[in-house]
């Protein structure tokens, strides 16, 4: 049986939006959605671009943790 689709939480939506922004800014990707096409779903990336994207994601997570502790 298929599970009914559930609406993602606000936190999940915020995370996905942030990942999309980082993927666009640092990796030049227009979407993170699977499109079932090798030409669209696979991309060559420079290691410095991947490093920048990972650093930005780490910083975003650290800031989210600080905000959570601060009660924001």
Observed structural traits:
0% strand; 64% helix; mainly alpha; 72 residues
Q: Into which percentage range does the β-strand content fall?
A: under 5%
How many strand units?
0
Give the overall pLDDT as a whole number: 92
What can be said about the biggest beta sheet?
Answer: none
Rg computed from alpha carbons, rounded to a whole number of angstroms: 15 Å
Overall helicity: 55-70%
Low-confidence stretches: none
Shape: flat
Distance between the termini: 39 Å
User: Which class best fits the helix and strand makeup?
Assistant: mainly alpha
Our count of helices gives 3
Sketch the topology as an H/E string, one letter per element.
HHH
Quick recap:
Helix content is 64%, strand content 0%. With 72 residues, the protein is mainly alpha-helical. The termini are far apart.
Characterization of this structure:
The chain contains three helices and no strands. It has a domain at 44-72. With 72 residues, the chain is mainly alpha-helical. Helix 1 (10-27) packs antiparallel against helix 3.
Task: Please describe the topology of this protein.
Blueprint lengths: L9 H18 L10 H4 L5 H24 L2
Helix pairs in contact: 1-3
